[in-house]
Amino acid sequence: MRRYLSHQFPNEIKTYLSLIAASMLAVVAIDFFLLSSDFAQHTFKQLVAKNPALSLIITPITFVLIVYMAKYFCHYIQGSGIPQLIAANDSRNKTIREKLLSFRVATGKIVFIFIGMLGGAPIGIEGPSIHIGGSIFYGFNRFLKLKRKLLIHSLIAIGGSAGLIVAFNAPLAGFLFAYEEIGRKLKKQALVLIAIVSALVYTLTLAYRGNTPYLGDLSAYSLNLELLWQLIPLAILTGVVGGLFSRITLYLIAKFISHSKARVIAIALFLGLIIGLFNYLSAGKIAGSGRDEVIFMLAGNPLGLEFVLMKYFATLTSLASTIPGGLFMPSISIGAGIGAEIAPYYLKIDTQVIIIMSMIAYLSAVIRAPLTAVFVILEMSATINLLIPGLLVAFIANWTSKQIFAQPIYEALAENYLKLSKN
What is 2-212's CATH number? Predict the structure, then answer.
């Protein structure tokens, strides 16, 4: 038994002290990142609400600046950051891991997401939070100098889990995401250490800022299980829409790859103008993560089909540009919009329940991590009582999405970084 345990855990006390220090730093750094991002997106929305035409100037300039700087000076901060963690965990190349995950990368991610939010980019904060968490924890390896592959890769998975936990106050989702995505190739014994440190991070998060559900407390809502079958069409619809989103996104990213500075600037300007136009037409509603809009819809205020379409295509455009930014919350807002539009056709199920199920199904279809999708939404809304219907729609949507595009989006994007280790 002692030999079994020693194989799972570090042997030196300094490793445990460093894990505690990394947990504390991650909570403080990610919370600062969340607050600064929230300030930036609200500043843009207030400005554009008064004068929507400004988005046609601010957003394109922001995209050109960020895409150019990220491509030529901070290449590894692009996108959500989750593919970087997957690639770092799958690669055996230490040099590549240190390029993808470092304190410098974490700092760059915070700065560029702030600028992106300030410029009206339709981006989320959870992927960047995961990247920041992974970078902080792996950054401590410079002091630890861990040799065992199991511990190094566990450190990366712990950091990713920490990022999601702090971002959404969702401990179960954070652990499951480490299992489903970041650490899917880790040996099972690594999960014990990941679970323990994830619990520590959650405890520190509660002590630092409290335990308010990210999307509000909706625990009063429930669903009669006899009505489960009515959710199947919703799961299939969101599965198709989410699968198409992933397929189109990967196609556009490949299409817009360029090594010419002039073409990089032209593409960034073109994509920025598209998003600027969506910001103009929506008076800034499609900008930022979409959290405010989700809370608004959960309160029984639909934003209309036009919001769903504009957020969908704006998020597609943003991802195609490779601008730093997360995918979770924008996807959740799209799912909420779909649910709000369909809810009137469900006479025996509460609108809020339909929206929650739609968010779960659409997120599962896009990221292809059904367990993570279920628990992150249920924890964000304090509706763990909806676990059974959530699992049903998540797995149906996941299967439907898989028929449209077999490879999960984060794995496909991670391959670009894994290629670096072969050069």
Answer: 1.10.3080.10
